[in-house]
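Follow-up to my post from last week.
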Amino acid sequence: MRTALIGAGAIARQHLACLQTLPDVELAAICDLSPATAEAAAERFGIGAWFTDHRAMLEEIRPDVVHVTTPPTSHFRLAMDAFDAGAHVLVEKPATTTYEELETLARRAQQAGRHLVEDYNYVFNRAPQEILRRIQCGEFGAVTHVEVLICLDILGPSGFADPNATHPALTLAGGAIADFLPHLASLAYAFVGPCQRAQTVWGKRKPSPLPFDEFRALVDGERGTASLGFSSSSQPDAFWLRVYGERMQATANLFETRLTFDGPRNVPRPLRSFFSGLEEGRTVRRAAVATLLRKFKGPGAYEGLWELLARTYRALREGADLPVAANDVIEVNRMVEAFKPTEQQPA
Amino acid sequence: MRALVTGANGFLGRHVVSALLERGVEVRAMVRPAAHLETLGWPSSVDVFRADLRTSRDLARAFEGVDVLIHLAAVVSGAEEAQFAGTVAGTERLLDAMAASTCQRLVLCSSFSVYNYSATRRTLNEDSPLHDVRDLYTRDGYTIAKWWQERVTRRYAEMHGWDLTVLRPGFIWGRDHGYLSALGQQLRRHHLVIGPRTRIPMTHVENCADVFALAAVDPRACGQTLNVVDGPGERIWRYLSDHMRGSGQWGWRLPIPYWLAIWSVRLAAVTVFRRATKVPSILVPRRLESRLKPLRFENNRLRETLGWTPRLGYRECLARTYGPARPVAHR
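User reply:
Got it. Predicted complex:
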């Protein structure tokens, strides 16, 4: 399968490192507006050709799959061109800047008989996948509620809040936090299904170029409820996922490998919390070691991206169902749309 | 003569501006939009041009009336991709703007990091081997970005027929920049001194700035690639002692022979870290070599080409780095 990639920035490196390990994938070409950036990526990952014009690349290479890893404002145009060239598209989140664009893109994919896959990498991390496995086999019980809270300091001077260069994400409704909404929405969707209604609170605690630095949402999903949040001020950095089922509860930090379950146990009721605590302590200690060791090797917190790409390419090869289906992309983006602020700046 | 200086308010840049003014060169100082310049004490004759090489659209205006570009700007910290985007893609944007101007002369600030220390024997000079693309991407982000910056600049210069001078400074030190990564490994306030008798390829920021100003005005610099070090360099143990004394720090210093350190790291690389892809630099043999390999360092070509000798001796440099701050005086 011939693969090409547009946009050779930070996240592209994770895509390329993973693609190098997949069977039957030929890294055919890479494109970036900066010739040196494209050439350096081609040299590093042994890519056959590099371009600065994506249309020239699509025409010359005729790839089967195109990865779009540019800033979000250019995704729509590039993905449309890739569909026109007959390729499947794997696009970084957020796939588009508006829901209308997403609908247009999905329609175009359907007309072309190609697939549109948006990167919901955290859904494919080991912890959410293990929780989903236990739900599917009935061990967990039906999910009643899910909490997702990203605590991440994005107010430093070298990223979203760079005072010298406006970050592309700041043009999105919601600013930098909009870059994280697909993570929140995709996890909520995976556990409680499509959004029926949502209430949101957007806030700003600290002075910065960002329009908002805090976000909370309460979602009424088809199969349960979800409370989602993003906090720039809460420290340390963490990505908490907590799932409440009728028989079990699960807690994970997706920036680490920590995953604990609490459920029924075969001990007298007064001792349940004691044995739960002991087991949780053991699990957290093991996860601490695993988190340390994974710093030396592999994709780290991007493990889900590697898993998503591996499953997507396997499905494309075998003509099977994709891990992220067209309807999933529509529903996640419908939820993201429901989160968007109605005003750009809080009072 | 008018010079455009990028990164003009940086550690080296502010001294280059002073050195150019001393030589009677008019200066256009390119600084980032949010840069604070109040403490620099620049005279009103310095023409400040605010732009960010990563994003600014109108860089061509910066070259109006400019005779020589002194390109110092680089992103020296942060993620590897951010360093590459800021340093290399930024240089492409800058040189695209230069190509649309009448400016034909360029002095680039490269780095000792472009040299392949592992393949260098005994003496490192301008003829020493550079990294090749097979091993470049095992290096740190700074090295990759500076190597690519030099590569890109040479391509542009060749394509447009520009007069290019590439200056490769060693470790630049000075006030508030006394601690060098060549000093080994700091553990809180204590130090593992790897190869205490190894000499450091160092240049004091004022001496280094003097070379840049000289290269900008002296036609003998055209077409040259020159290493910038003040001399053979101080030994690590001595410089670390002076640094700790000067900065009032206290801590233990544990000397470790270089051969012991490099063989330990090599052993770890083929055992403990055999499959590891993300290891701290000090534990990667090639990266350890590029910081600490005991070599001799020369500035013969710089002396012979431009007749340059450092204005400030080591003692005077120490005094300027750790002594009372001197008021900035510009002509």
